[in-house]
Automatic annotation (TrEMBL):
It comes from the Bacteria. Residues 135-154 are annotated as: Disordered. This is Xanthine dehydrogenase family protein molybdopterin-binding subunit. It comes from Streptomyces himalayensis subsp. himalayensis. One of its GO terms (molecular function) is iron ion binding. Residues 23-135 form the Aldehyde oxidase/xanthine dehydrogenase a/b hammerhead domain.
Amino acid sequence: MSPQPQAAVGAPLSRVDGRLKVTGKALYAAEFDVDGAVHAVMVDAGIGRGRITSIDTRDAEKHPGVLRVISHRNAPKLPYRDNSGSNNPPGRRLRVFQDDRVLFHGQPVAVVVATTLEAAQHGASLVEVEYDAEQPSTDLNEGKPGEPTAYARGDADAGLRDAAVRLDLTYQLARNHHNPMEPHATIARWDGNKLTVWDKSQWVMGTHDEIAAVFDLPADAVRVINPFVGGGFGSGLRCWPHTIVAALAARETKRPVKLVLSRRQMYFGTGFRPSYEYRLRLGSDRRGRLSAAIHEIDAETSSYETFTEGVMAPGQMLYSMANVSQAYRQVPLDVNTPIWMRGPGFASASFVIESAMDELAHKLGLDPIELRRRNEPSEDEAKNLPFSTRRLRECYTVGAREFGWDRRNPRPRSTRDGNWLVGLGMAAGVYDPGRFPAEARARLDADGTAVVEAATSDMGPGTYTSQTQVAADALGLTMRTVTFRLGDSLYPQTGPHGGSSTMASVGSSVVDACNQVRQQAIKLAVEDEASPLHGVPAGDIVVRNGRLHGKGNPARGETYRSLLARHNRSHLEARGNYTGPPTPERESYYAYNATFAEVAVDATLGLVRVRRMLGVYDAGRIISPKLAESQAFGGIVGGIGTALLEHTVTDHRDGRIVNANLADYLVPVNADVPEVRAIYLDGEDNAGNLLGVKGLGEVVQVGVAAAIGNAVFNATGRRIRQLPITAEALL
C-alpha cells in the first residue's frame, strides 16, 4: 500500500488548543459549572503518627453555610475493593475516614462541606482534633530499610577488588515535589447510583477504576472527565484520597461537591520524588575501561505502601562492564506515598552515575566524553538484547561540536570571568519510554471532517496537537478538518499519560483507527463503478486534503464528501488499538541524550548561575518539532530546579513539611533560565510502535542535574555529592 503523504507530522505547528488556553476558555477540573455544587475543605492531621482521640465539630457545624462535617466518627464504611492496577503500589492504600489511625502529617481526618468556599474554609478551622501522638519516623538516614531488590552479573566484589582504579562515593538526593500550576481538584456528582467526577488526572481510566473499586461500583456507573491538565509532572498518575473524599461528601450531602487542594495540601495530599541515599563503588583499569560497579540504593516510601521506580536500570545498561551488583531498598517512613516525577528513577540514578563518571575521568586525566566512548556497549548487557537504536556516540559528537566543548579547560578553577568561576560539564541520559495498550476511535463524517477520540490526557506536552497531526496524515485531511477529543472515560481506553508513553501508545492506536477508516473509503471507491477510481488497485491510492487519487495520477480521483454522499453514508468509523511492546522483547528500547552545561559560580558567595545548556536527543521520530522544543526546554528547566533549588524540608520532630509553599520551596523562575538549545537526531525507532517514536517527555530531564554538577566541579574544583547544590556547600 502506498504510504500516505506526511503534511502535518514533522511540521512545526502551533497548539490546536492554544487559543482556548490563552483566552481562558479551556476548562480545568475545578472550573466546570456544575449546578448546585457546594464546597469541601479537608482538615489535615497535625501530628505525624498516632491516633485521633477526639474530634469536636460543634462550632464548625453551627457556622453559617456549613452543611456537614464528615470524619471517621460518622463516615460510612467503604468497600475499598482490591485494585492492584491504577498505579496503586503494593500495600494497603490509605482508607479515608475509616479508622482513627494517623499515618502521616497532613493526612485527611475530616472534611467540612458548606455552601460557599469561605464558609467551608472557616468551618474547617473550627474543627478541634485531639490526638494520642507517637514519634514519627521521617528521616531516611534513621529508617529501617526493607529487603532489597537485587541484581547481579559477574562477580562485582572480585572485579572491584582487582580494579586498578577504585572510587567509593555516596550521594544524597533531596525529596522533590511536582508543584504544577494547577492544584489538584475534584468535582463529584451523584445521579442516583451513578457517579460523575471532574478530576485533575493523568490517567482517567486509572481514576475511574479506583473510584469503582473504593465504592464497589460497576464500571458503567462511573464517569471521569478531564479535558485539560494544568501541569502534572507525574503527580496525577494515581487517584489520591481527596478524590475519594469529594465523592464521599457528595454522596453524604446529596449535592455535587467541589474540593480543591490548597498549595500547602499539595505537599502531602499527592506524591513526590522520593529522597535517596545512593552509594556507588566503581572500578576501572588505568585506561578507563570499567570493570565493576556496586550500587547500594536506599529510597523513602510510606509505611503503608511500597513505592518503587526504575532507579536500577541505568546502572545495568548505560555502560559496558562485566561485573555489576545492585541492592535497592525501600525505607518505610511515616510519610505519604511517593509517586513518579519527571524522569522517575532514571533522573535520580543519572546524577549519581554521571557524576561518578566525571570523577573517574578527572582522576584518570581523561576527557569525560572520551571515557564514556570507551565504555559504550555493543548490546544491552542486562537483557542480552540488541539496542533498537542507540546513538549516544552521535549525541556526544554533535553536542561537543555545537556547544564548543573543545574550549573547556580540564583543569578545575582555571577559567574566570571577573569574579565568576566558569565551568563546563556534560552527562549522558537514558530513559525507558513506556508502551501501554491503547485504543482509539475514528469517525469520518459525510462533510469530510473527522473526529478521533481516546481516553488519554494532556498535561501540557500537546497531546491534542500531536494526535491531530497523526490523525490528519493518516486520513489525508488537513489539521483544521480533524478534531481530537480526550479526557473522558467514555472514550476508548488508554494507559496512563506519563512515562513518555502517549505518543507511541495512543498515537499508534490513532494511526490504526484512521488507517482503517481510510481503507474503508478506498474500498468503497475502487468497487464503485460510478467512482473515477473504479478498478484502481487499492494499494495505489493515497488521500490528500480529503481527496482520494491514484499515486501516479493526481487528476483521477474524488473527495471523501462525494464518495460518502453517493453511497448515502453519514460516516465511516473504526476502532484502532495498540497492544503494547512485543512479547518477549526482541530489542532493548530506550531514548538517549547528551546534555551540556556551562555555569558561572561567584567565587566569593558561592552562587551558581547556569549560563548555557544544550541537549542532544536520540528520541526516534519527532512528530511535532515545536512541541518537542517545549518539552526539551521544560525538562532542562526542571533539571535546573533539581540541581540547584528544589528541596522539600521536613521537621522530623512531627513530620511537618516546613516549606510547603511556593515562597519557600524554590523552583526556577525566568531569571534562573539560561540560553537553552535542543537538537534531535533524525531517524526513527520502529521497535514496537507504528510511528517510529520513542517519547521525549522524560529523557529531557535525565542527566541535567549531573551536567550542572559536573560543570560546577570544573568551575570550582569542589565536588558536591548532594542535591540540591547550594551556595552553602560551595563556601
